[in-house]
Amino acid sequence: MTGDGTRAVRAGLPAVEAYQPPMPPPVLAAHYHLPGDPAEAPFGYGRENNPTWVALERAIAELESPGPEDGARALVFPSGMAAISATLLSLTRPGDSVVLPSDGYQIWPRLRQRAEERGVRTHTAPTGGNGQLAALRAARERGERVRLLWLETPSNPGLDVCDIARLAREAHAQGALVAVDNTLATPLGQRPLELGADLSVASGTKALNGHGDVLLGYVAARDPELVDEIRQWRTVLGAIPGPLEAWLAHRGLATLQLRVARQAENALAVARALAARPEVTGLRHPGLPEDRDHALAARQMRFFGCVVSFTLPDREHAERFLAALRLVDDATSFGGVRSTAERRGRWGGDAVPEGFVRLSVGIEDPDDLVADIRRALDAAAP
User: Fold this and answer.
1) How far apart are CA 43 and CA 49, in angstroms?
2) How far apart are alpha carbons 377 and 315 in whole angstroms?
3) Among 3.50.30.80, 2.40.50.140, 3.30.70.1150, 3.40.640.10, what is the CATH number of 4-253?
4) What tens digit of pLDDT does each residue of 327-346 get?
5) 130 FRET partner, CA 20 to 30 A, in 45, 167, 222, 379?
6) Cβ neighbours of residue 276 closer than 8 Å, sequence gap 6 or more
7) C-alpha count within 13 angstroms, C-beta hemisphere, residue 42
8) Which amino acids are annotated catalytic?
9) Class of 256-380 per CATH?
10) What would the pLDDT profile of 39-55 be if each residue is shown by its tens digit?
11) What is the pLDDT confidence band of residue 351, given thresholds at 50, 70 and 90?
12) Which neighbouring-strand residues pair with 202?
């Protein structure tokens, strides 16, 4: 198998053809010429398929696949939540049980409510420790039919890590599927399918695209039946991405390895600088050797991600810090080439202290970022 950088540059591209662009332009079409039997047509109607999606899906599948002989298939969506919702709701039925992260993305409680309205029993457990394992075993002891275990590792925003391989073995022993939200790690930082998961789901809005200009989501799996089930859901609900967004995301993949590697290096430099500050508590980054999940993360991750989280003494202190930054924008989301940070408690959906900051480290020069953060911390002091 070729290296990650080579795979990212070449992923999903068509065979070389004389006088044609190496990457075809986006196909803007609501319908296609459709003679004969529609079942034999590769493209018939815009809600069902698009050549630009196909190229991006092929590229993502190549990056998520454990190996060339064990290929995955991928489906793209107009946002990460569209991909998550389609996966959860298409694969569960009334009477099923699911185990979900209690410390995952803040929209999860609302999605849980939708699942429960459809007759699905939901249980939550924290990412760190043995909470998810205990939740699985408790459901089995109650005689529940667990359909799906959902993992988010590292978790957002707390950056806890769980053992994908161990949890996958436990879930499969109960006949449950395992889905992993791989947004923070990206397929170059972690391959859930290689670790035993059935589905790898992510918000392509973040590091996969990396430029802060596209909303996108995807799901990848090796089982074609799972992919077909989710595809039907996408077609019926019309949760389809625009071809221009798909094209932009595919174009951005060429630099994915460079961006992910640089962001991981920068994030570690920033985390080390923060570790030296007395006003900083609760510092988390899986790449720090002293992080409680570092040993586990090192076993299953190749890059430790771009996010650093930490807590300042109170809300006002955090807001002064954010206002004093010059190279780090006060914005939500993460994974972009430009560094961003926010006081996560302003949204109200995460169980974090008022002074909790989620910092997404970009690809700027690390010395400049560290200097800016140190200067802002000095300026924020009471």
Assistant:
1) 6
2) 14
3) 3.40.640.10
4) 999 999 999 999 999 999 88
5) 222
6) none
7) 5
8) 47, 105, 181, 206
9) alpha beta
10) 888 999 999 999 999 99
11) confident
12) 218
| Residue boundaries of the structural domains of the chain | 4-253, 256-380
Kindly tell me if the per-residue pLDDT of 32 is higher than 80: yes
pLDDT tens, residue by residue, 216-270: 999 999 999 999 999 999 999 999 999 999 999 999 999 999 999 999 999 999 9
Position 69 confidence tier, pLDDT thresholds 50, 70, 90: low
Query: What pLDDT, on the 0 to 100 scale, is given for residue 39?
Result: 86
